[in-house]
Structure prediction request, 113 residues.
Amino acid sequence: MKVKAQIDRFIGKDNRIKAYASIILGDEYVIRDIAVMDSKNGLFARMPYRSYKDRNGNMQYSDVAFALNETSRNAVSDAVLEAYEQRLHMEEDESQGLEEQEENEAPVFEQRM
Prediction:
């Protein structure tokens, strides 16, 4: 199945969650709110989940969508992380371009008499 991923929004460099992504599966299904997470083992894609309290008041988590096998899980993860890296480099290139443009512009001074 073909997996397309896109980064919907960046969260921040200082957070464990770096961004949120969406994927399109086989041009037929969309899964939103896949988090790009940073851990001690590196970046990974966390599928969306819901949280609730069980009858004892303990917080429980349940995946909303998930892959049924390792091949599918790797395809989703690879697509999301590749989209994240591409978007991150694109954002960095844009910010460097703005910095270089600001450095190359001569200051304008206006004097009135």
Summary: Residues 49 and 63 are 4 Å apart (CA to CA). The helical segments are 70-104. Residues 106-113 have pLDDT under 50 and may be disordered. The longest helix spans residues 70-104.
